[in-house]
Amino acid sequence: LTCPDPPGEILIAEGGNEEHSGESFDNFGYPALVDEYDVQIRLVDLNQETEWETETIYLHDRSEYQVHMPRTVLDCPCTISVAIAKTHDVCCVTLALKNMIMGTIRKEDRIRMHGYPEHKARELPTEAERLAVNLIRLSRHMKPDIGVVDGTTGLQGNGPGGTDTVELAIAAASADVFAVDAVVAQAMGFEPVTLGFLRYAHELGLGVADLVEIEVLETAIEDIAVPFKVHEDNVLQLQWQDDEASNYLQAK
């Protein structure tokens, strides 16, 4: 590592949806990294986490639910979220912030972040309202210190799964995760402040999502932007506004 004060240990943590522990590490060749660098690297399967902190989120009927956040992540002095630029079926895009939160919390809590106990019960636009608020609530504890978005090849259309790829051919990083998400969202063809989690973060002072206030280095967004196909439910996704949101965005 070339930084002047390298860490004594690096954790590569993943809370994937694989059937077997560590399967995602094998799929991406992570075990080979352990011997590649002159620093201790430890692969951590967050699905095996045993120590948690909790935070209240709100379900579709505004009832409360306790989400479990892994101590392994909360105790790290510096966290980095590395995400792929993808469209999403609820909040239009999924980038560095959502990757950090939804990829690390307890697996059975993830669907509750959408406001519902199971996938078949999900319903827009209420789902978009709840997910935007719940992401902000957890971001107070879990927003990464550095957000990185790999946009070399992104996913468009009815994401976050599928094979409808698009060559965006960029990578972006920032110490403000909301800023990097805003810049990449714009490069994908989405106006950042029309996206619920970015609008709330900017208004609450948790980060900067207004492009007027963000300095983009190396290149202009308009020079590299590639409009992504939006999800088929995009009209409903953009109806995330909630007149009562201010009652639920603040930490309890």
Written description of the protein model:
With 252 residues, the chain is an alpha/beta fold. It has a domain at 80-249. It is 26% helix and 22% strand. The chain contains nine helices and nine strands. The protein has helices at residues 23-28, 71-74, 96-102, 126-142, 177-187, 196-204, 221-224, 234-237, 246-249; strands at 9-14, 40-45, 52-58, 64-70, 80-88, 92-94, 146-155, 165-166, 170-174. The strands form three sheets. Strands 5, 6, 7, 8 and 9 form a five-stranded mixed sheet that branches. β1, α1 and β2 form a beta-alpha-beta unit. α4 (126-142) packs across α6 (196-204). The radius of gyration is 18 Å and the shape is globular. The model has no long low-confidence stretch (mean pLDDT 95).
Topology as a string of helices (H) and strands (E) = EHEEEHEEHHEEEHHHHH
Q: Biggest sheet, open or closed, and with what strands and sense?
A: 5 strands, mixed
Oligomeric state of shown chains: single chain
Strand content: 15-25%
Cα gyration radius (Å): 18 Å
Structural class per helix/strand content? alpha/beta
Average predicted local confidence, pLDDT: 95
Cα(first) to Cα(last) distance is: 40 Å
Residue share in helices?
Answer: 25-40%
How many DSSP H or I helices?
9
Give the tally of β-strands: 9
InterPro entries: DUF362
Protein name: DUF362 domain-containing protein
Domain DUF362: 8-185
